[in-house]
Write a structure and sequence with these properties.
Arc Repressor Mutant, subunit A; 2 domains; 7-stranded parallel β-sheet
Amino acid sequence: MNVTLRRKKILDLLCAQGTVEVKALAEELNTSHVTVRNDLTSLEKEGKLERFFGGAALPALMRMPVASQNGLDRELAVNQRYQINDEAKRKIAAKAAELVVSNSTIIIDSGSTTHLLAQALADTGNVTVITNNLAAASTLAGIGSITLAISGGVYRNVSQSIHGHKAEEFFDGVYADIAFIGADGLDPKKGVTTFNEGYNVTQTMAKCAKTVVILADSSKLSRSGFNQVLLPEQIDMLITDSGISSEDMARFRSQGIHVVAV
């Protein structure tokens, strides 16, 4: 097993169990204790786990329960979301970046896929980015060709983003060519839903943009959050992955939403 697959397996076990032990990993992966310890050290440097004597645990930000009742799931910490459908999210982010042209103004919402979009924008010139996503802002800070505007407001640790009345005031009256919005859940009839209580700022973002683009992998299409964020008629485009069913694609398109599957 190569190093990439081995470390992915370690992270998968961590997400499922919360903790892992060196001895058990060595047996599971059919490798040495030294190799496992080196993998854990590398993953810790990337912020994906925390070492302890004889093993590792999820970072504190990621240690939160995930429950599912009547199709409603609790909000996951943003760091944990990077491990879910990672390849699909990166493809979605890359496709979204193709929509961004020079001299345009865009809004980037909170979320893991929107953060990956920010990473994909590194080589795009003369773009103004307005965001409440601190992970995205950190990625874009210092890139001379990008003008970065960050909202004020209240910091939410679980999503690494800014919300609240001050954030809404910041976005109110802003004009953008495109707003890139994430989603905890997406339905052709309900629109965008979220578990995040700070969803009002996303509603304000959507009102400020000429075009609203939702970035959501296909796993989000069968989920519903507690709060409705955007109605279907407020959405111009959905970028998702090839896991979307033909039935769901037809349902979204019947609502006038342009669907792009990557």
